[in-house]
Design brief:
The chain has about 160 residues and is α+β, with helices and mostly antiparallel strands. The protein has one domain: Zincin-like (2-Layer Sandwich). It is about 45% helix and about 10% strand. The protein is built from seven helices and four strands. It has a four-stranded mixed sheet. The longest helix is centred in the N-terminal third of the chain and has 16 residues. It is globular, with a radius of gyration of 15 Å. It starts with a helix and ends in a 13-residue tail after the last strand.
């Protein structure tokens, strides 16, 4: 399957999620059924942020909208590669890899395998700090978001899977 082409033609978070599922299924032979994906403002600051997290008990990936808004403003071409990177990382957690360093290694390996060493997705997985100017607002001190409303993404679980395989 040509994941590079699928990424170029992606138009939604659900499209990116399908690519992520396909990569993990093909490479690791695992899937997570019944997963929810939500987007909310988790805040950010100029030296870092939480891109997303996987809530084990809720079987939910929560994506931080703040870096997505910044990317849309300054580097829209980075939007879907960044989204794929953070969703792949959290999806790998969802199939049972909870150690952060191990998960980062798996994501780097999968990114290189499916997108090649020079692709933006692989560069994000290898050196996300190089992208911080595009991901954070300049001179921003951390502020607690006023509204933690989570907007759940529709069309995420398009396949009919019964369990973690």
């Amino acid at each position: 399957m040509d994941h590079r082409k699928r990424l170029r033609t992606a138009r939604s978070i659900a499209d990116i999620f399908e690519i992520v599922q396909s990569i993990v299924r093909e490479a690791l032979g695992q899937e997570q059924a019944g997963l929810l994906v939500g987007v909310t403002d988790l805040g950010a600051q100029d030296n870092g942020f939480i891109g997303a997290f996987y809530a084990l008990g809720a079987n939910t990936i929560i994506i931080n909208n703040r870096p997505l808004m910044r990317i849309e403003e300054v580097s829209p071409e980075l939007y879907f590669p960044y989204l794929l990177h953070v969703m792949l990382h959290e999806y790998v957690h969802s199939v049972g890899f909870y150690d952060e360093e191990e998960t980062r290694d798996i994501v780097r390996h999968l990114s290189r395998r499916f997108f090649g060493p020079d692709h933006t997705v692989t560069q994000l997985a290898s050196h996300i700090e190089d992208f911080l100017p595009e991901l954070t607002y300049p001179s921003q001190e951390f502020q607690t978001p006023e509204d933690m409303h989570i907007e759940f993404v529709t069309g995420i679980d398009r396949r009919n899977v019964d369990y973690i395989c």
